[in-house]
Amino acid sequence: MGGSDNPDNLALACHRCNSHRYNFIVGTDPQTKKKVPLFNPRQQKWCAHFIWTADCLTIVGTTPIGRATCNRLNLNDEGYEQEESILQPRQFWVQAGWHPPLEDPRQED
User: Fold this and answer.
1) Would you state the pLDDT for residue 38?
2) Rounded to two decimals, what is the model's pTM?
């Protein structure tokens, strides 16, 4: 809230994530039930807060910030029917070799 539209204050996001993000700057960590700031890609490293499941379809928050961000932005489309979920495109992207970025950590099989 209150941020400018200066390019230094913006982060690239798809429409789906941007609409979930809205103007929220905090979320609730489902594990601790505490309010924490959401992940800030300009100030934090993705790998410090998230990991992909071994199949590369699901983002797992590894810290309170990561868990709250997954929850607030609904990064894994929990509660949606499979055909409407982000999981279907992710599966296609994995098969095509486009996803996830090589530098992103993944759980072991």
Assistant:
1) 94
2) 0.80
